[in-house]
């Protein structure tokens, strides 16, 4: 039997004040002396109520002991000192020796949809049924964050797009992720984390941008860190081909948010966008491009993004977007991951072509990386999110348990017809969470 969720919500709201959104909350303000801080150094911290926002209007139990947040220094895409926020969560029955940096896909250029806010209990302006409402801030990816907490792992999750939500800008996403781990390692021990935990990275889809760039940049940007591994799925290995793949399809809204995010990261993209938008479609572009994920998805569905640009698709072939796609949206060019990688990807991914991830893995492997690559021949981007992530959870568990990968310095590739629901992995989730995940996919996983 579950306590009816609305009753639970009413009880809890009486105790905790409704959180302020990042644009209203002074705590998020970057200090003027930001460049005096070292990357990963804490600027300020706070402890929040030990409760996180349920992922869906379903009674999924996510029991946490403590939630801490840190505003810390990181480095943006142009090399400037900027601030970012990392949330550190201690689960019930925490194992002090295990830390996972779980990078949520939040896929939006709206700062009020950053996880440090959306994870806070009662943050959704639309209320729990808000999953159906355009400006809902609920993030479905919280499911795997919850599954990870249920393993007893400490979780660090970073607002890796930076304070102003530079969605799809790879460099800041990677650097903020690494600085989020630095802050978790320095601050965590004050709250019960071991001083020398094992730590790993994980992210799917938009989260794989943060994880992929973090893995490539770690040897140069954060050489002192030593990850036991990184799992990245539904990879966005080439942003340029991703934009043309999603265009006019179910996920077309993502392209609007991504362009807006790049314009925040790069002044020349901002100028290009300003000069290239069709005047009478500017307001519609801005509305879609600044929604949270659910609004972006529903308002952008089937839209032709090229129709918003004065030169149509040719606008994207101009020097500025071409240069930025290469700098900010192309994996395999920033460095070779030195940590073991687990990559899982649908060959027929309807968001980002499977070929691009094949190419990324080839590049890593030619350069001596350690990669286990699962190519799913039948799954789709949303189904692999669930089935593939279940197996990724098992891979991360082995790494955090201290088991070494068997393929050090080499690559394995496996073609699977349909990422099996590994019978050993489902119990890791617990029945309730598993049911919720199946529900999010509308039953496509069957029983
Ligand atoms: C930044 O300025 C604040 C306020 O003056 C000061 O308290 C803090 O120590 C400074 N930080 C650094 C790293 O210098
Ligand atoms: C939620 O988890 C806690 C800690 O594991 C447990 O004590 C509690 O009974 C669970 N509640 C439900 C409704 O499953
Ligand atoms: C969300 O949408 C509702 C209904 O349109 C509106 O009343 C509310 O102010 C919006 N909230 C935010 C944070 O945009
Ligand atoms: C990325 O995709 C674009 C558009 O499809 C293509 O022109 C470019 O060559 C790709 N980049 C790499 C490195 O494969
Ligand atoms: C746009 O700006 C970035 C970052 O400053 C720069 O590297 C790139 O070369 C610029 N693109 C063009 C076409 O000037």
From TrEMBL:
Q: How far does the signal peptide extend, from start to end residue?
A: 1-17
Q: Which GO terms describe its biological process?
A: lipid catabolic process
Give the keywords, sorted: Hydrolase, Signal
Name the Gene Ontology molecular function terms of this record: triacylglycerol lipase activity
Q: Output the Gene3D superfamilies linked to this UniProt entry.
A: 1.10.260.130, alpha/beta hydrolase
Coiled-coil residues: none
Name the family.
Belongs to the AB hydrolase superfamily. Lipase family.
Cross-referenced PANTHER family: LIP-DOMAIN-CONTAINING PROTEIN-RELATED (PTHR34853:SF5), PTHR34853
User: Which protein are we looking at?
Assistant: Secretory lipase-domain-containing protein
